[in-house]
Amino acid sequence: MDTETPMVLGLSPTRMGLLTRRNSFGLSAASLLKDTYPNLRFVQAVEYGDAAGSTTQTMQIMAEHVGAQKTAETAFTEKLRTHAVVTDASAWKQKLSQGTWGAIIYVPAGIATMAGL
Predict the structure, then answer these.
(1) For 75, which of 11, 26, 87, 91 is 20 to 30 Å away at the CA?
(2) Do residues 104 and 76 make contact, with C-beta atoms less than 8 angstroms apart?
């Protein structure tokens, strides 16, 4: 991995607002990061935010690939499956089902998490 590696930085919208704040020289931390890591992508998600009344925030950076191996991906069993219609005395019933596996992490070393203020 190097500075040209495609990476994703996940953070809360609050922290993204702080990264884009300009200093007295007209520079922001987000622009400096993009200059240093040109293939860095920012992803905002409220799940990275703090709990009510807490000041702790989480940031997570992930390399999209480590070597030729994908670092992680989301997976599901089936998006939505409809089952056969069951006839009742005065109605019909039909079952719907779906499932998810969540995140499948292939290379844990390609992901770093930071919690702080």
Answers:
(1) 11
(2) no
